[in-house]
Design brief:
- One of its GO terms (cellular component) is plasma membrane.
- It comes from Medicago sativa subsp. falcata.
- By secondary structure, this protein is mainly alpha-helical.
- It folds into three domains: 11-212, Up-down Bundle (Growth Hormone, Chain: A); 270-363 and 447-559, MFS general substrate transporter like domains (Growth Hormone, Chain: A); 365-440, no CATH class.
- It is built from 26 helices and three strands.
- Helix 2 (24-57) runs antiparallel to helix 8 (184-190).
- The radius of gyration is 26 Å and the shape is elongated.
Length: 572
């Protein structure tokens, strides 16, 4: 089939499971290539937990939010470059080679990260990992798509998506497992080397994509592989379909200019919808939750790093479940309606997060002169001593946001919401604070509203994952005419990565500058704008044949009453 991956329904998944005894060779191809998706998910998720411990070894990372953001976002910058290079390597050298190169980059990056002697080396390692992520994000699903029987292709490509979210969930489990091990974060970041080596070994024993071989004139090699993939009764039809598809594709590969794209009404309007959805998918804050989830949990008032990682498992697990639910809802509900339901839930969840964090700031525990006097005077935060002499009241929020010196809040023993001490933030004072079984806070403050924030975070994922987590990808696979689908899909993917980079690079800076409450309010406002955008610019493509989507965009049909069934152009 040409023009995209067939959507996976439950019958396709049942047939996919039957391959385990009917044709295990196909599952071997899919799972071997799918390890790239697992690595993609693991390397994007593992940094959230590792950040909590990197600051213990490199104090500069703990003090400087821009350094934390750089460690996270340089991988995304690498992914943008990796995706661009990966497209060329895919076409020039093949999908198999591209996957192996991505694994080599994962392996090199993991080794550099595990052995990093300073933050600068960490950033270099993250660039290598990002290059691997960018290449894997293109090569793995493409290989699976081109090496799978048509009737189960959608299900097997969806396997790659499951492995991405599964990899993120696995990264939180690995993070949790190594919290008490010597070298904590080094193990967390280095473990990715193992699946990279496994995939290299597996891919060396597997064939190249039959479609790529056929396109490069290696027809006999392609036919040998296709005989292993398809049943005898389907083989001749699939060979003919592949031949016609490749011939059509070669005819459509003439150079297309940007001006030609913009002058074509249907393509221009398709880009508005596709790139707009990609932009809003990132700017409603999903990857701040995935990259900084443990940090957000600490901002909510949970001081323990282990507890922060444990609670972050909730968001990662719900994200994986949501990606499975989307398979059912995407065709049952429709793309536009599902996106609007998803965004409405996202707005409500972000509003709840805003209110919760604001209440936590207002009711933050006070800093007590008496409590602070329990510690050596040299350990007391200098700014607090100045404020106390001038009879200024300080609370925990003022303490952890002190400007001239990095300070932390040592909570009162027993009831942590009672007045505590404000001390200079370093390993020594953290240890002294812990002697009396007090909790040490440097990011958030003790709060009675912490659990509400966790519930709001879970609701955010529940609403986002099955809807806005999936709809932009589906719409971008359907909305462009065949001859423009490759370049338009590339533009949409670039929009995703660049938007991801901007959001991840600015999140922690915003939480320090304006506080988490107002940061989440900004995301909520963007989500409200997204609702209106979807209503006005995004067409409903459910049940509309791909050849009719173009004519629908030409007529600029704005379906405000999105809940009503719309006739396809052929019915009018």
């Amino acid at each position: 089939m040409e023009g995209g991956v067939p959507e996976a329904d439950m019958s396709a998944f049942r047939e996919c499971l039957s391959l385990s005894w009917k044709n295990p060779y196909v599952l071997r191809l899919a799972f071997s290539a799918g390890i790239g998706g697992l690595l993609f998910g693991y390397d994007t998720g593992v940094i959230s937990g590792a950040l909590l411990y990197i600051g213990d070894e490199f104090p500069a990372v703990e003090r400087k939010t821009w350094l934390q953001e750089a460690i996270v976002s340089t991988a995304i910058a690498g992914a943008i470059i990796g995706a661009a290079i990966g497209g060329w390597i895919n076409d020039r050298f093949g999908r198999k080679v591209s996957i192996i190169v991505a694994d080599a980059l994962f392996l090199i990056g993991s080794i550099i990260l595990a052995a990093a002697p300073n933050p600068a080396t960490l950033i270099v390692g993250r660039v290598f990992v990002g290059l691997g992520v960018g290449m894997a994000s293109m090569a793995s699903p493409l290989y699976i798509s081109e090496a799978s029987p048509t009737r189960v292709r959608g299900a097997l490509v969806s396997l790659n998506s499951f492995l991405i979210t599964g990899g993120q969930f696995l990264s939180y489990l690995i993070n949790l497992a190594f919290t008490k091990a010597p070298g904590t974060w080094r193990w967390m970041l280095g473990v990715a080397a193992a699946p990279a080596v496994i995939q290299i070994v597996l891919m060396l024993s597997l064939p190249e994509s039959p479609r790529w071989l056929y396109r490069k004139g290696k027809e006999e090699e392609a036919k040998v592989i296709l005989k292993k993939i398809y049943e005898v009764e389907d083989y001749d039809n699939e060979i003919q379909a592949l031949k016609e598809s490749v011939e059509m594709e070669l005819k459509e590969t003439e150079k297309i200019s940007i001006m030609q794209l913009l002058k074509t009404t249907s393509v221009r309007r398709g880009l508005y919808a596709g790139c707009g959805l990609a932009f809003f998918q990132q700017f409603v804050g999903i990857n701040t939750v995935m990259y900084y989830s443990p940090s957000i949990v600490q901002l909510a008032g949970f001081a323990s790093k282990r507890t922060a990682l444990l609670l972050s498992l909730i968001t990662s697990g719900l994200n994986a479940i949501g990606s499975i639910l989307s398979i059912y809802f995407i065709d049952k509900t429709g793309r536009k309606k599902l996106a609007l339901i998803s965004l409405t839930g996202v707005v409500l969840s972000l509003t709840l997060l805003t209110v919760t964090f604001r209440e936590s700031e207002i009711h933050a525990p006070m800093v007590s002169v008496i409590e602070s006097s329990h510690f050596n005077n040299t350990n007391t935060c200098p700014e607090f001593k100045t404020a106390a002499m001038n009879n200024h009241n300080w609370n925990c929020m003022k303490c952890i946001r002190a400007e001239s010196t990095t300070c932390g809040f040592c909570a009162a023993p027993g009831d942590m919401t009672k007045p505590g001490a404000c001390l200079i933030s370093n390993k020594n004072t953290e240890d002294i604070c812990g002697v009396d079984h007090r909790a040490w806070y440097t990011k958030g403050c003790p709060s009675n509203f912490g659990w509400i924030a966790i519930i709001a975070l879970a609701l955010y994922i529940i609403f986002f994952s099955p809807g806005m987590g999936t709809v932009p990808w589906v719409v971008n696979s359907e909305i462009y005419p065949l001859r423009y689908r490759g370049i338009c899909g590339g533009i949409a993917s670039t929009t995703v990565w660049v938007s991801n980079l901007v959001v991840s690079q600015s999140f922690l800076t915003l939480t320090v500058a304006i506080g988490p409450a107002w940061t989440f309010m900004i995301f909520a406002i963007i989500a409200i704008v997204a609702i209106f955008f979807v209503i006005i610019f995004v067409p409903e493509t459910k049940g509309v044949p791909m050849e009719e989507v173009e004519s629908m965009l030409e007529k600029r049909f704005v379906q405000i009453k999105f809940w009503k069934k719309r006739d396809s152009p052929s019915e009018k």
